[in-house]
Model the fold of this input.
Amino acid sequence: MRSLWLLNELDIPFELVEMPFDLKIMRSAEYLSVHPLGRVPCLVDGAFRLFESGAIAEYLCERYPHAGLGRPAGHSERYEWLQWIHYSETMAVHAASLVQQRYFIAPPDRSALIAKLEGRRLEKTVQVLETQLSDRDYLLRTGFSAADIGVGYSLHLADRLIQLAKFTGVSRYLERLRARPAFQASLPVGSTGPIAWLPDTASRP
Done:
C-alpha cells in the first residue's frame, strides 16, 4: 500500500498487478524473476526492476520530481527526508512482528513476551514521532513528502496493534494523512474504514 499511495500522490499512469497470497504463485520461477524473494512490492519501469519500498520511494521521487514529494540532493532537508523514509521500515519491523504473533501464528505457539516487547518497541517509535510533530503538521518543516507516506503507512498499520490514541499529535497527523484523496484511493476495494483491510483473524488456527 505504501508504494501504491505514493504512485497515487504522484498522479502518474501506472498498472497495478495484485499478487494473491499464494506461495505457489509468489515463489514461482516467473515471479522470482521479478522479485528474488517472491515478495511485494516490486516496481517494473520498462526493463528496470526495483524492490524494497524505501528504494522505490527514492526512485519515484527522483524520476518524477514535479510533485515535490522528494528532497533532491543539495536540499537542506535531503538527509532528514532520507532518515524518515528509512525510519518507516524500523516501525514496520515491530508492527510486522506483532501481526505475526496476533494473526498468523497458531495460539499455542504465540509468545506473550514477544508481543509485549514488540508492542513497547513500536510505541517508542511512535513517541519519537510525537516529539517530531509537536510544532508542525508533517515530518519536515517544508511540508508533506514521501517520508510522510512511508511513516503514515506504518502508523496506519500500528493503529490496529497498539493504543495509538494516547499519542494525540500522532493521532491528528494520521487523521490528516488518511483524509488525503491519494490515501483513500490506495485502500482496497470494499474497505469500509481506515483499518478494514486487515482482517480480524485473531481466532485463526
About this structure: Residues 192-205 have pLDDT under 50 and may be disordered. Residues 78-186 form a domain with the Glutathione S-transferase Yfyf (Class Pi); Chain A, domain 2 fold (CATH 1.20.1050.10).
